[in-house]
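DM from R.C. (forwarded with permission)

"hey, sorry to bug you on a friday — could you get me a structure for this? deadline for the figure draft is monday and I only need the backbone to look sensible"
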Amino acid sequence: MGRQPKQDKDQLENHVESFRTKRELSRQELADLVGVHYQTMSYIERGEYAPTLALALRLAAALNCKVEQLFKLKVSI
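My reply, with the result:
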């Protein structure tokens, strides 16, 4: 999956960085845990890259939380 169009980014709340820092992990450490490059973690945290479902699930497992806690829609469906 690639970078998101601006309108998609604006509708998604991303809490990966806050969960990562609460767990005192560097971007590199989290990237190693989930099997991606540390730069990919940077893109995800800035909302410039939408992770695949598999990667979102690995992030949630590594951060000991639910996917819904990491990523939330800003708008109601």
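R.C.: lifesaver. The domain at 6-67 is CATH 1.10.260.40 (434 Repressor (Amino-terminal Domain)).
me: no worries. The beta strands are 12-14, 71-73.
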